[in-house]
Amino acid sequence: MIKLTLPFATSANHSHHYGSGRKFLSKKTKDFRQQVQDIVVDAKAKIHGTPRLAIFYAVYPPDKRRRDLGNYEKQTTDALMAAGVFEDDSQIDFIWMVRKEVVKGGMIKAVIVENDDIDAIIEHYREVFNG
């Protein structure tokens, strides 16, 4: 099991820019991915091989604005993959997200487990996000 506290993600709605017929990652997305990379390296967080995975996200927004959580899931999952936590997001069978209270600056808590026992996965969720 890997537990990480990440910065609040950029929205997938603003992740790319287009120019000269090409698609580019935005500066905010590049900065977010670099921050995630630094956290992953410090935590030595890596899933070895290609097991099936389940991911839990607790999203602590920086303010009370309306937000589509799906936009933040994709950015966070892509950043974790780019940082080498797992090989490919096609390994993920189960994603559970919950919106939590507003915290200054925002953050996302992520828990990544191998998806071999759904009961154990639900218990991890209870421990991490309700305890």
What does this structure look like?
It is a single chain. Strand 2 (16-19) and strand 3 form a beta hairpin. This protein is globular. The chain has a single domain, classed as 2-Layer Sandwich (60s Ribosomal Protein L30, Chain: A), CATH 3.30.1330.70. The model has no long low-confidence stretch (mean pLDDT 86). It has helices at residues 27-43, 69-82, 118-130, and strands at 2-7, 16-19, 22-25, 53-60, 92-99, 107-114. Helix content is 34%, strand content 29%. The protein has a four-stranded mixed β-sheet, with helices on both faces. The protein has a two-stranded antiparallel sheet with strand order 2-3. Helix 1 packs across helix 2 (69-82). The longest helix is centred in the N-terminal third of the chain and has 17 residues, at 27-43. The protein has 131 residues and is of the alpha+beta class. The protein has three helices and six strands.
Q: According to CATH, what is the class? A: Alpha Beta
N-to-C series of helices and strands: EEEHEHEEH
Spatial separation of the terminal alpha carbons: 17 Å
Helicity level, as a percent range?
25-40%
The shape, in one word, is globular
Proportion of residues in extended strands: 25-35%
Question: How would a textbook summarize the main sheet?
Answer: 4 strands, mixed
Can you count the helices?
3
Specify the structural class. Answer: alpha+beta
What would the CATH topology be? 60s Ribosomal Protein L30, Chain: A
Report the CATH superfamily: Holliday junction resolvase RusA
Got a strand count?
Answer: 6
Tally of individual domains: 1
**Compute the gyration radius: what is it?**
15 Å
